[in-house]
Amino acid sequence: MSNGYSDKGTGWLGFAAIMLGFAGTLAVIDGIVALSRSSFYVANSHFVFSNLHTWGWINLILGAITILAAFGIVSGASWARWFGIFVAALAAIGQFAWIQAYPFWSLMIFTLDILVIYALTVYGGKGGVQA
Fold first, then answer.
1. What percentage of the chain reaches a pLDDT higher than 90?
2. Does residue 16 sit within a domain?
3. What is the torsional sign of CA 7, 8, 13, 18?
4. Which residues contact 54 (CB under 8 A, 6 or more apart)?
5. Which residue among 60, 67, 78, 109 has its CA within the 20 to 30 Å range from the CA of 29?
6. How far apart are CA 91 and CA 93, in angstroms?
7. How many angstroms separate the most distant Cα atoms in the chain?
């Protein structure tokens, strides 16, 4: 019995959900670390605006929203495609704020966010991830 999903599309949606969940979890951890132990990050880094404490809160909130988007994609919610694209784009832009502290890490996560946007744009209209 065919469920109307191509294997390629389901794989991309699974990738998008896993990467959003992974990026969201790491953003929450980064936010907690920035709030609790600021000495963990590179000393004398300059941020786009404000300080490390503010970016810690931004990362914490963005991470929680990213995890919510990942759960929405897995559940097949109709709002999840566009919400996931919006969150991944916001996370990609947000990575440029951390580029002074960890340039390689920021560029790596930025690349994953772009791949998530691709997956949700091309295959996200077909519903959620099917087991």
1. 29
2. no
3. positive
4. 47
5. 78
6. 5
7. 60
pLDDT at 4: 42
In a domain, 6, yes or no: no
Identify whether 9 is part of a domain: no
| pLDDT grade for 77, boundaries at 50, 70 and 90 | confident
Integer Cα distance of 48 and 125 in angstroms: 35
Rounded to an integer, the average pLDDT of 21-36 is: 86
58-83 as b/e: b if 16+ CB within 10 A: bbbebbebbbbbbebbbeeeeebbeb
